[in-house]
Amino acid sequence: MSETKSLLPRQVADAYVDDLIALDPVTGTYLGVPESSRRLPDYSPAGQQALAALIRTTLARLDEAERQPGADSDAERRCGRLLRERLTAELAVLEADEQLRAVGNMGTAGHSVRDVFTVMPVTTDEDWSAIAERLRAVPEALAGYRASLELGLERRLFGAPRPTATYIQQLTEWVDTDGSGRGWYEDFAAAGPEALRAELDEAARAATGALRELRDWMRDVYAPAVADAPNVVGRERYARWARYYNGTDLDLDEAYAYGWAEFHRLLAEMRKEAEKILPGAETPWVALAHLDEHGRHIDGVEEVRAWLQGLMDKAIEDLDGTHFDLAERVRKVESRIAPPGGAAAPYYTGPSEDFSRPGRTWLPTMGQTRFPVYDLVSTWYHEGVPGHHLQLAQWAHVAENLSRYQATVGGVSANLEGWALYAERLMDELGYLTDPEERLGYLDAQMMRAIRVIMDIGMHLELEIPADSPFHPGERWTPELAQEFFGAHSSRPADFIESELTRYLTIPGQAIGYKLGERAWLLGREKARERHGDAFDPKAWHMAALSQGSLGLDDLVDELSRL
């Protein structure tokens, strides 16, 4: 890190981003840093140690920065508190050697080394030259990742068996995407220019070969070694991960009870809405199954992509000037189809810092070509507008008023997911979900987030199912019971439910942030409304809230209440 004597917290935070990008060029690519485009991170134990050392150095420099004159201003205080909380939470994860057992259906080094190519520019020969060089870096990056997993085996820090099995299936698909013997990297490189054809093909084959070697080792060595390990993490590890994803030390038993309270509230609402669709339906999910067959659908993959684009475009036109004030560059968002072989849930990638790459929503099709409308509308309010896109694009737009850290890598999952779930509710409040199909789909999506709180905490802590539960009261949660419970209280198909359960086992503590984050956003709005009375301006409050940059749940309610 460059000399930071007498710097203030926001300057320390921005210096940290520069140094992080040097260690993690994947992060640099997502931010749109051209110099990052030819390299990949060091995923070996040495690479993780370097990251931990950077964090410790930055925390020491933050101590000094917070003693400087001017460090007590609102802007500096907010940034310094976020930086300290985030780095402390990340350091706790690193010092617990969690990276030595990072396997699962999302978020691993293997996923990062593949997914980063989907956001790289592909316009010029120079762009493709960078892609070829990064492809050549894939074998070393995967070798470093494997070295970390090998050290985990040596130290008996085992990944969970179920996520391991799913990960091996994903690697197999990436190695041979369609049964023809060509891997994902080769398919991706095939779109490059003829002038670089030989170079791209050779690099892509080497990348696929390294991926195949990783898959074979995972299958033949790693999976047998972890076969008897638990799939759940227990209270201590779960609390560490919950702090990392939520930005607060949660009362996990209170959060579990809140999940059940939301379950019962939403179930009552769903029953009322289901009666409008299929009178006398035994459960709301019977009505949703009816919609799977007889409800409105979009047929075709390109057709659904275009339809989702239109949904977001309309939301922008309707909301801009009435409930938000959006800069022109924030108004652009793209709908994309996700590459095959990933998790089943839709997702969003934010714009580059200069907006040369726009924000994008991604729909995994899971092989489908027919898509129920009820399952898409509120989800795209969540992923696109007014959800993730408005928040993350607004952060990028006002970045000059924040630290770079607050606008980019300092994001707290529960803040982000809480806003996106709040955005779904906001669209319901504004009257965009009056159609019974769409509103029942929205309530089903809300129910999934409540169930996540119940299942994620319940199975990892092996808690007791309460006596008033309609499902196995008095028993203790297991992943098998969680999958059965989810299947009985969701419209999602079996492969989606399977993918979701594996996700919760892969990244414990993340899935609870949707409902807990939404609760924080709603409470912050209510306190601001009470403070202003009749003078409360929702549009002004939304724009001020979206311009604060990242906050953990420790700070979110307090800061929202002040607006």
Automatic annotation (TrEMBL):
Pfam families tied to this protein: DUF885
Against InterPro entries, the record matches this protein to: DUF885 (IPR010281)
Name recorded for this polypeptide: DUF885 domain-containing protein
